[in-house]
Amino acid sequence: MKFTFVTLFQNIVEGYFQDSILKRAIKKDILQIEYLNPRDFSDSKHNKVDDTAVGGGAGMVMNPQPLCAALNALKSIDEDVHIIFLTPVAKPFKQRDAKRLAKKSHVAFVSGRYEGIDERVIEKYADEVFSIGDYILTGGELASLVICDSVSRNVNGVLGNSDSLSVESFETSLLEAPSFSKPKDYEGNCVPSEYLKGNHSRIRSLKLVLSEYKTKFFRPEQFIKYNCTSAMGFLPKETKR
Ligand code: ADE
C-alpha cells in the first residue's frame, strides 16, 4: 500500500518511519511512502504557498494554485489515489475508517498549515476529510501520521502477529483488558492471580470483566452501546454480578 504525504514539512513526517514496525514494513515493501511539497509547484516568484484570508481574519491561508498543481500531478500518476484532507473541521477518524482505508492501494494525506487550506481545494479534491480530535494542532502532519499509523497496522503483513488485531480496543465495543508482563511480582504489585494459573477460559472471562470495568469507567457512552447481557453469559459463576 502506498501513502503520499502532501506537506510543506516533509521532515516532520519522515522521522516517524525510521524505526520499529513501520520501518520493517517499508523494508519488506509492504508499505511505500512518498512526499509531495506544494511549494515545488508554486508558480509565484518566491515559491509562495499562502496569503492573507479574503474577507479578513487572522493568519495566512494556503493558496489554491500550488496545492492544486501538486494534486493534479499526483492524480496524473495514479487516478485511483484516495485523497484525504486533515482539518479540525471534519468528521472524527475512527477504527472502522482505519480498517476500511487499509483496503485502498494508495492514500494521500493533504496537510494544511497556518490558518488552513483554501476551501475550494478541499471541495475539488477531497475524497474524505478527517479530524483526529476536538483540539487544534499547528498543522495536519501529526493528524496524517496518526491516521497513516492506524491504517498501516490493518494492512496484511504489517503486524507480525495478526491475532493482536482482533482483540484490540474498538475492534469490539469494549476497551481492551489490561496487559501485564514479567516479573509476576514487581515491587509488591502482583499480576492478577487468575492470569498466572494457565486456565485460558477463566483468563478470557476475567479479561471480559476487566474490559467492562475499563469501558464503563473511561468511556461510559460506549459502555451503554455494549450489550452487557449477552456477555454476562460467558462469565464464570464467581464473577457473575
Ligand atoms: N489540523 C489541525 N488540527 C487538526 C485536528 N484536530 N485534526 C486533523 N487535522 C488538524
Q: Please, could you describe this protein's structure?
A:
By secondary structure, the protein is an alpha/beta fold. It folds into two domains: 2-152, Alpha/beta knot, CATH 3.40.1280; 169-239, Trp Operon Repressor, Chain A, CATH 1.10.1270.20. The protein is built from eleven helices and nine strands. It has helices spanning 10-14, 20-27, 64-77, 95-101, 119-125, 141-152, 163-166, 193-196, 200-218, 220-225, 228-232, and strands at residues 2-6, 32-36, 50-52, 60-62, 82-92, 106-111, 128-131, 185-186, 189-190. The strands form three sheets. A five-stranded parallel beta sheet has the order 2-1-6-5-7. Strands 3-4 form a two-stranded antiparallel sheet. A two-stranded antiparallel ribbon has the order 8-9. Helix 4 (95-101) crosses helix 6 (141-152). It is elongated. It starts with a strand and ends in a 9-residue tail after the last helix. Residues 86-88, 131-133, 135-137, 140, 143 line the site of adenine (ADE).
Keywords:
single chain, 241 residues, alpha/beta, Alpha/beta knot, Trp Operon Repressor, Chain A, 5-stranded parallel sheet, two-stranded antiparallel sheet, 11 helices, 9 strands, 38% helix, elongated, disordered C terminus, binds adenine
